[in-house]
Amino acid sequence: MSASIHGQSPQLSVVVPVHNEEDNVAPLIGEITKALRGHIAFEIVYVDDTSRDATLQRLRELQASVPELRVIRHLSNAGQSTAVRNGVKAARASWIATLDGDGQNDPADIPKLLAQRDAAAAEIKLFAGWRVNRQDSGSKRWASKWANAIRARMLRDDTPDTGCGIKLFERDAFLDLPYFDHMHRYLPALMQRAGWKTVSVPVNHRHRTAGVSKYNNLNRAIVGIRDLRGVAWLIVRSRRTAVEEMVFESKTP
């Protein structure tokens, strides 16, 4: 199903991974369409990671009234990074905006990211949201601050907030990155490893109003230590070089 302005192909794909977010689906989609309709040709790609509630049903119902909406369903639970990657692979636009499905990211910030992109140099391929005024619990904010400090020290990615779900990036650059579970938390470092530049953009952050968080501080810490070591290894082992195509003219007899 095509989403466009006057029949254009989408210029932006908004990818939203979800798992058990039945009460957040309709409000968030309404905010996305309000922020983007009339401004850019776009599509919305929801990736349902085997929700056990009515999330998929709500999405199917919304497709009747939201022509921009596409729905992809995982056949087995695979996690947020895989959901983002599958959404990006299915996307038809050359640029991707991502949002968490819990409604804490504000779709009204997407035009701000697009404006930053339009004014930026071509080598900047990722515009990462930066939650300057986080609305999470005190323990979660403390854990995030601690984790960001360790990550910045190890990876030197010059990014104050890699866990923010709202991001804007070039599709081809993303699909060229090494894929692994939880990679969505390390996109700035991975983009920089690939030779691109990244920018952090202050964005709004909101309280969760429905549903429950899928993470806690302990499971984030356990996987985070292992992932940090892996990303650091990837950076150390990275090798890049510019290339040029050689064209040799054949001599005419």
From TrEMBL:
Please state every residue range assigned to the domain named Glycosyltransferase 2-like.
Answer: 13-174
Q: Which domain of life is it from?
A: Bacteria
Q: Mention any Pfam family matching this sequence.
A: Glycos_transf_2
Keyword Kinase present in the record's keywords: the answer is no
GO terms assigned for molecular function: undecaprenyl-phosphate 4-deoxy-4-formamido-L-arabinose transferase activity
- Classification via InterPro entries: Glyco_trans_2-like, Glycosyltransferase_2, Nucleotide-diphossugar_trans
One biological process GO term for this chain? lipopolysaccharide biosynthetic process
Give the keywords, sorted. Answer: Cell membrane, Glycosyltransferase, Lipopolysaccharide biosynthesis, Membrane, Transferase, Transmembrane, Transmembrane helix
Q: Name one GO cellular component term.
A: plasma membrane
Would you tell me the protein name for this molecule? Glycosyltransferase family 2 protein
